[in-house]
Structures are given as C-alpha cells and as structure tokens.
Write a structure and sequence with these properties.
Belongs to the enoyl-CoA hydratase/isomerase family. One of its GO terms (molecular function) is enoyl-CoA hydratase activity. It is found in: Mitochondrion. One of its GO terms (biological process) is fatty acid beta-oxidation. The chain contains 14 helices and twelve strands. With 332 residues, it is of the alpha/beta class. The chain folds into two domains: 82 residues, Orthogonal Bundle (Lyase 2-enoyl-coa Hydratase, Chain  A, domain 2); 237 residues, Alpha-Beta Complex (2-enoyl-CoA Hydratase, Chain A, domain 1). It has a six-stranded mixed sheet, with helices on both faces. A four-stranded mixed sheet has the order 6-8-10-11. 41% of the residues are buried. The N terminus is likely disordered.
C-alpha cells in the first residue's frame, strides 16, 4: 500500500476500483420470464436461441421485438450468477451500429453494479457470425464529423467491457472481424470453433483498428504477430488462433453451431463456485499489475489481497475446508 501511495494516478484508480460494489438502478428494463426471447419469424435463429438457452431455462431478459439488437439473459438454478449477452442483428451480420453500442453500454452498466453476477458470456444468436465489425452501411451515411464521436463511443464500450469486475468470456462461433474481434479482445477469455474466422481487417479499408485492437492484440499474442495480422488484414481460423494465443480454447463445431458457447458456459460453471470477491480482486490485480513494473504489481496484489481478508467468504472457505463440505459463498 505504501508503494501505491506514491503513485497519485494509480492510487486514485485503486480507490475507485476497490470501493464496495453496490446495487444500482439500471436504465435497462429487465423482465422476468420463462423460455426464449421472441425472435420474430426467424426459425433458424429461434432454433439457435433454443440451443443457447436450453429448454425451460428461467431467467430475466429484455422484452424482445424485431428491432432488439441485444438479448440479455440472467441464468438461474445451478447457473445462477451467469449472464449471457447475445448479439442479435441477423440482417446486418451483427455489425456494430449506434443502437447496438447503446444497448451494450446499458447492459454493461447494469451488470457492473450487480453483485449477484459472477461471470458474463458474450456470444451471438446469429449462426456463423460473431460480429462482422462496424456497420459500414450506417457508417457510409454518417457525416465525417460524426465518425470520430461514434468510434469514441465504441472504444469507450470496449473499455467498459474490459473493466467489468467479474470474469468475461467471448464465445466465437463464427466470424469476428474488425470491431467484432476488438469486442472479443476486451473479454478476459475467448473460446472459438475451429471454423471461426478472426481478424483485424481495417487496413484493407485504409483505416486502422479504432476500438482497442492496436493495443489489446499485441498484449494478447505479442507485438510481431499482432503487427503481421494488422498489416496484412489476414484472418485466422480457430486452430491458428489457438496456436497464436488469441483464444484460450478451440473446439470442433457442432450441429447446432454453438460449440464455442458451450465451452464458454462450461468455463463459467467452473468460475461461479469460487469466492466472488476473490475473483474480482484477482482480476483487478492481474489487469492492473500487468501494466506496471513488478514491484508496483506486487504492491497492487497486496492491496487486493487486503480486500479479501475481512470478508465473511474467507471465513466460510476456511470453515468449509475444516468441515469437509463445499463452501457457500455470498459475496460478503
């Protein structure tokens, strides 16, 4: 902590990041319900939604009309604590529009302050597509003066997604290009189908990645490999992405087209039994520590460890170990 006190900016960051998480009013109107979001008359998409959510899953979601670009599901039962954000723009290949940025920002804001959320999965409800990047048709209609502010909002969304306090997983079952890959890079972990295509292709359009790609990709796969992919605009499949370290897991695609999502869900199920405060502090320590020198990183780890010492969950973990039973953590 003493080391942290000497760094004004770092100290301010930690005072903000370490403050107790509180429930807050959400701008999103969430509704309790059973079954699947209404997907209009799109039967293939309906089948995929059923595959993703599973039959009879009880949860909360947006009331979905044809115009909804994002589906939000709070899973229950044994999967309580998992939130699934499903991108749903089938006609636009899940391209990033003004409305999608707005809806995702609101969803991220709601999740951020919800202490019951332990893991977030970002996926697609559209077969064969994760996110095709920016909505170029919408972009073409923008005045040049509008482009910069829109890209800034998209970049801010990626930052907010990356700064969520709980673990986040991107499930890439289809193409993740440009801003779509930048969105996935903002998540902690990525799973992908062997057949998925990923790449930062912006240089082919005489622009550069503008929502974090030039920073997060080299931090993920190394500087030289990131430069090669960005300079060439080349795409890679799930197998090559795994060898590069771009994704943590690559899996054979299944008939339903949701193999990466199922792997992400399996990982989330491994995460949710752990102490939620400890998970958040571990993520904070890693994310902040990796950006600084080792001595400062160790001070950050010490500061984060100090946050778990007075928790009821820590006592519960010790008690459960002594009594040889599974711990029941409450995030307290």
């Amino acid at each position: 902590m003493a080391a942290l006190a000497g760094c004004g900016h770092l100290s301010r960051t930690f005072r903000s990041a370490l403050c107790p998480f509180r429930y807050g009013a959400s701008k999103l109107q969430l509704h309790a319900g059973i079954g699947y979001p209404a997907i209009c008359a799109n039967e293939p998409l309906l089948r995929r939604t059923r595959a993703l959510w599973g039959s009879g899953v009880v949860g909360r979601h947006f009331s979905s009309d044809c115009g909804d670009d994002l589906s939000v599901r709070y899973l229950e039962g044994e999967d309580s604590g998992i939130v699934v954000l499903g991108i749903n723009r089938p006609k636009a290949k899940n391209a990033i529009s003004k409305n999608l940025v707005k809806m995702m920002a609101e969803a991220v804001d709601a999740v951020k302050v919800n202490k019951s959320v332990r893991t977030v999965i970002l996926c697609s409800l559209v077969p064969g597509i994760f996110c095709a990047g920016a909505d170029l048709k919408e972009r073409a209609k923008m005045h040049p003066s509008e482009v910069g502010p829109f890209v800034s909002k998209a970049r801010a969304l990626m930052n907010e997604l990356g700064n969520l306090p709980m673990p986040t997983i991107a499930a890439i079952d289809g193409a993740a290009l440009g801003g779509g890959l930048e969105m996935a890079l903002a998540c902690d972990i990525r799973t992908a189908a062997f057949t998925a295509k990923m790449g930062l292709v912006e240089t082919k359009l005489a622009i550069i990645p503008g929502a974090g790609g030039t920073q997060r990709l080299p931090r993920t796969i190394g500087v030289a490999s990131a430069k090669e992919l960005i300079f060439s605009g080349r795409t890679v499949d799930g197998t090559e992405a795994k060898s590069l370290g771009l994704v943590s897991h690559a899996v054979e695609q299944n008939e339903a087209g949701d193999a990466a999502f199922r792997k992400a869900l399996a990982l989330a199920r491994e995460f949710i039994p752990q102490g939620p405060i400890a998970m958040r502090m571990a993520k904070l320590a890693i994310n902040r520590g990796i950006e600084v020198d080792l001595a400062t990183g160790l001070a950050i780890e010490e500061a984060c460890y100090a946050q778990v010492i007075p928790t009821k969950d820590r006592i519960e973990g010790l008690t459960a170990f002594k009594e040889k039973r599974p711990p029941r953590y409450k995030g307290e």
